[in-house]
Amino acid sequence: MTRYLIQRVAALIGILFVISVGCFYLVHLIPGNPAITILGPAAANPSSIAKIDAELGLNKPIYAQYFVWLGHVFQGNMGKGSVSREPVTSLIARSFKLDIELILLSQIMAFLIAIPLAVYSARRSGGLLDQVSTSSTFALFCLPGFIIVVWAVKYLTVDWHVFPGVDSDPFSGGGAFLGSAWLGGVWHNIDVLLLPSMVLALGSIAIYFRLLRSEMVFTLQEEFITAARSKGLTTNRILWRHAVRPSSITTLTSAGNNIALLITGLFIVEIKFQLPGLGYDLINAIYQNDYLTIQGIALVAAVTVVIANFAIDLVTPLIDPRIARA
To answer: What architecture is the 95-287 domain classified under in CATH?
Structure first.
């Protein structure tokens, strides 16, 4: 287990280094002088340009600029937005709370639906439930997310008023991250976040169902399942106590990889539902050529995906210790 942990941590550090270099070079892809683009033509003068160059280390060699930027990132300083002049870290800290709420709520929905559906579909492979579930999830898997978002907003919010619009309930802006005020805000926002979370969960349901159902079909044919049946164990006990655990490794691993897809889906959902999350801020930053905000959001999104996969890598050996010995 120790060797496995060291390998995972080493891989994590290497990937984070590559991500940091890629995000650092975003500013250097700006045509012309990055300081002028960051300040804007109206505010760009020799003294302000020199100040930005000094703050970002743009007057130093490229390798020195990277370490200056990385030191600022570790101190929580990613610069200020070129339009709002708000610190990028403050903007990310405020918006990222909404993203966390959406991801957690959507994944809870996805697992609560996909796992029981996959288990009972695999119990009678080829039966009516299995055929309907497999066809439905295949359709969800193939249907583009932006189409689902458009339909959800038009019919469930605008036409039929099944779910409230965003303006009907204010979002929590205060409270420390994961503090009591923030947790209270999560509960307060659930009615507004329910439909966006459902839209995000649909793709995850299709992925988790298909993976777990396939693994369950093979697991239920194993000898230890036959032995459990011969002992007179109930079907539910066999399914949930003996078959689910060895079948869930692939599904759990895919949950980490699915974070990348979720973040991409978040950007689409937040724009369509006008939710003030990172995706909404990223699109605004792109329109405004706010490169420091784009750089900060790209860094946070990429690191979130890597950390999520790292956490999954730590959990999977607890379910199947053979992974750590491989």
So the answer is: Orthogonal Bundle (1.10)
